[in-house]
Here is the input.
Amino acid sequence: QVHLVQSGAEVKKPGASVKLSCEASGYTFTTYYMHWVRQAPGQGLEWMGIMYLGDGSTIYAQKFQGRVTMTRDTSTSTVYMDLSSLISEDTAVYYCVRDGGSGGLDYWGQGTLVTVSS
Amino acid sequence: QSALTQPASVSGSPGQSITISCTGTSSDVGGYNYVSWYQQHPGKAPKLMIYEVSNRPSGVSNRFSGSKSGNTASLTISGLQAEDEADYYCSSYTSSPLVFGTGTKVTVL
Here is the structure.
């Protein structure tokens, strides 16, 4: 079965960067798209970007352009999301999510809490 | 890209039916048949309940159904049960290419 296992919680200072990982298993990695979605405490879901795992092409939400970079390692079926210039408002749970096709996000990682605090 | 608009809360008694709306524009909900719905219980990751407006993934109860008219999509929960109490989010493809709704808290009275 499909599993997405994310890296552990992070605590960062304002201005720092964070790199999260998401290891996929149970399906053919390169034939799907992967999204990153975040959720601030008590808030709704916010879409950050998408990567086609076949060729690594990406589209980022306008809000995060210039601060976010999504990469992948096909040898380990792992996706990475790097977010720079962190501010307190970036405190959130970050999810990697597989796109099952037609925008249906069918498998979610367990989430990684990133806390930005001085 | 602005978030899709959902009511903040909807409630119903066990056994009743409730409907959650998700309003967008012709650039998102109205322009694509790629609306999805997610259920999220506290402290858990969201779960896909509906995709492509009205399709249910395997394992999702047929008490959940989706539809769309113009720029508004809807999720109906029939035969409301205590376990349905959760937050619900819609999403739609756009040119951006994805946007979520503002979220709706469903309370079972």
